[in-house]
Amino acid sequence: MIAPRLIAITDSAACGWPVVVDAMTALTSAAAPESVLVLLRFPGLPVREALAAGRALRSRTRQARQWLSVADRIDVALLLEADALHLGEQSVATVDARRLFRGFVSRAAHSVAAAARTLDDAGVDAVLLSPIVAARKGAPALGISALSALRQARARPTSGGRVYALGGVSSATARACLAAGADGVAAVSAPRDEPAALLAALGA
Questions:
Q1: Backbone phi, then psi, for 194, in 5-degree steps?
Q2: pTM across the whole model
C-alpha cells in the first residue's frame, strides 16, 4: 500500500486559513505525487469555517495528486471525500470508525507502549508517535531512540502499520527519524517554514 512520507498538519491559529491553504498548495505542488498528506485539524474552530478551508485543500491536493486527511471528525472527512482520517487517543474506536470510513486511518500515541498496542489494531494503517524531538504540553520528548524501540516491537507479525514521528521534527532531524525506523514524519511548522528543505530531507 502506498503511503505518504510527510504528514503536514494545519495550524490556522498560527497564521489563518488563507495562509495555510497557500502554504499547503506550494508544498503539495513541489512534492512528488502521493508523498504528502495534508492533515486538516481545527480544534475549537467552527465546522463551517473548517469545511470551507477543507474544500480548498481538497481541490489543491487532488490537483497535486496528494492526500487529504481530517482529524477526528468522520462527518467532515466524508463530506470532503478525504483520503484519510486521523484519530486521537480519546477518539472513537477504530472498529467503529471503520463502519463509516474506508480510507487510510491513523491514530495518535504518546508512548512506545501505546504505539505498539495501536499497531496491533488490524484497522489502523499508521500511528503518529509524539513528542519525539521537542517537549509538548508538559510532556518530555521521547527522543528519536523511541522510534528504534518501536521498530523492534513492529517485528511481530501483527505489527504491520506505519510509524510517523511527530513533535519538533524539522529538516534537520527528519533523516534521523527515518534512520531510526520511522516510515515518515508529521509536522506542523516545518512544512510551512522550510518546505523545500523538509521535502529534500525526506526524499519527497
A1: -145, 55
A2: 0.95
